[in-house]
Amino acid sequence: MQASTDLGKLVLRVVLGVLILFHGVSKLIHGPGFVTDALAHAGLPTVLGYGVYVGEVLAPALLVLGLWTRAGALVVAINMVVALALVHTSQFFTLADTGGWALELQGMYLGTAIAVALLGAGRFSVGGGNGRWN
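Structure (tokenized):
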């Protein structure tokens, strides 16, 4: 039973980490211009946009490795809340053309990050199953 629980934690954190990391790699290649523009439009300092590298590169890497997993997952969750607030507020109560929630992907990322933060890494991780932040 414990092995399947740890395997489930592994799948959850690696899938979340890899999918968010794709967004981070895009920012590494093309820069955070979209994020800094959104911050400027909201009247916030554009320098905060460089925090996207923490939320979309560093934190997902920690998730994939299983090192400081809970902290990494919390950073991803905060990153998603900021993305929802800055870019997606107009879509919050809308449906997509296919009938699903317009923000189902963002909602799944946020919910998964919260689940990983609560569950931890499991024993199939660099940090192991023990430790407050793992």
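Residues 2-119 form one domain. The CA atoms of residues 78 and 112 lie 12 Å apart.
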